[in-house]
Design goal:
The chain is α/β, with parallel strands linked by helices and about 425 residues long. It is about 35% helix and about 20% strand. The chain is globular and about 75 Å long. The structure holds (2S)-amino(hydroxy)ethanoic acid and manganese (II) ion (3 copies). GO terms for molecular function: hydrolase activity, acting on carbon-nitrogen (but not peptide) bonds, in linear amidines; metal ion binding.
């Protein structure tokens, strides 16, 4: 670190917390969290607030054809590739105030602190808001960063539909955030993502900082089961073609497969759609997505194969049709060693307790890691709870991770 920095190199935690609380007012949930789903009017309002704050801090905006927002602070060497700091402003329907939002606003806070400390960097700094990280409204998760990284086709992404049949492409145009930059044209010197852990480890181990070395891999398997619509009252049990029963047995089987792959494997179902979804009609169609994850490549692929084979057996035994489509996938990710070391060094220089951790949740960094050196920083969250309106962190935790972010980014952006 040069004279420009030293021990006063910390962020303004109060300003970061105020931004978080201000952003949380947009798309409020019904229980203290947020419902600011991607490409809704609430998402558009949050984007405008972020844009205003960034422009007030002297950043210039670029938006690409997936609606990804790139807010640039110039470096002293215009030819140097930028250091990116990113995450997402969209939330789950019953999301918390910090998932994703912390990483975007902490990136802005790091830049505002550079301004306050009159720090210049060789590499430009770009604070990024990725579109549709959650995958709640349009599957898969991390959709726009996946297109940016060249692993998801943009036309496929534009055609993705929400539960009401609206497409990603139409909704992006409707809210006025279809940008003109060619997605993926930007090149990165490095990418940092700061995120709440969304799990119980850091709090249980009483650590302030998670030095994220890896992220577990994921499959989202969308099953479409075909039964026969029939009266729930007058149809004898032996004459039923019961897609709902098949789904229940598949869910139980997924639990058993995940438990058979311990330690370190998870599996479950978060979304089910019965058609016609009427109390006294046996479902003709049942659509649901199985979410399986593990840091082990071998286990990940074995779990997928086992679940698909057993699901076909369950459906055959009930005479139910079974189709499955992988609607989300990434292999286990190893983050960039040099950047991971810069995060650990920053935590040590600041005297913050820290530990290595593997991310349980998926993040945009999983895709940027395909195209640039990438890593993550984590802070604890209360009870490890996330994707729940009661998601909570402390201002101290939020600030400590942002201090680490500032120092690791400056180390990489070359003061
Ligand atoms: O699904 C995930 O891991 C992330 O929250 N989108
Ligand atoms: Mn997130
Ligand atoms: Mn999330
Ligand atoms: Mn794979």
């Amino acid at each position: 670190m040069t004279a420009q920095t030293g021990t006063n190199l910390r962020v303004n935690g109060d300003r970061l917390w105020d931004m978080l609380m201000e952003m949380a007012k947009i798309g409020p949930g019904i229980a203290g969290g947020n419902n600011r789903q991607t490409l809704t009017d609430e998402d558009a309002e949050g984007r405008r607030l972020f844009q205003r704050w960034c422009e007030d801090a002297g950043l210039t905006m670029g938006v690409d054809t997936m609606g990804n927002m790139f807010m640039t602070r110039a470096g002293t060497d215009p030819d140097a590739l930028p250091v990116y700091i990113g995450s997402h402003l969209d939330t789950q329907p019953t999301g918390g105030k910090y998932d994703g939002v912390l990483g975007v606003l902490a990136g802005l806070e790091a830049v505002r602190s550079m301004n306050d400390l009159n720090i210049t960097t060789k590499h430009p700094i770009v604070v990024t808001n990725w579109t549709n990280e959650e995958g709640a409204r349009f599957a898969p998760a991390m959709l726009a960063s996946g297109v940016f990284a060249g692993v998801i086709d943009q036309d496929y992404a534009y055609g993705r539909k929400d539960m009401d049949g609206k497409t990603f492409g139409d909704e992006l145009k409707r809210i006025g955030w279809l940008g003109d930059e060619v997605v993926g044209a930007r090149k990165m010197h490095a990418y940092f993502e700061y995120h709440i852990e969304q799990g119980p480890i850091l709090e249980a181990e009483n650590k302030q900082i998670g030095v994220v070395t890896h992220c577990q891999g994921l499959w989202w398997l969308e099953f479409t089961l075909s039964g026969r619509e029939a009266h729930t009252g007058s149809t004898p049990m032996n004459l039923r073609v019961n897609a709902g029963l098949a789904m229940a047995r598949i869910m139980e089987m997924v639990q058993e497969v995940a438990m058979s792959e311990q330690p370190g494997a998870v599996g479950g179902v978060g979304q089910v759609k019965f058609s016609p979804n009427s109390r006294n009609v046996l479902p003709g169609t049942v659509v649901f997505t199985v979410d399986i994850r593990t840091p082990s490549q071998e286990k990940l692929d074995r779990m997928r194969a086992t679940i698909e084979a057993k699901a076909n057996e369950i459906c055959a035994a009930l005479g139910v049709g079974c189709a499955v489509e992988a609607v989300g996938h990434f292999d286990p990710v190893t983050f960039d060693e040099k950047l991971v070391a810069s995060v650990r060094k920053a935590a040590e220089d600041l005297g913050y307790s820290h530990m290595n951790i593997i991310s349980g949740a998926g993040h945009d960094a999983c895709w940027t890691a395909k195209v640039a050196p990438s890593t993550m920083i984590m802070c604890p969250c209360v009870g490890g709870l996330s994707h729940n309106e009661a998601e909570e962190i402390s201002q101290e935790w939020a600030t400590a991770g942002c201090d680490v972010l500032l120092r690791a980014v400056l180390e990489t952006a070359e003061i």
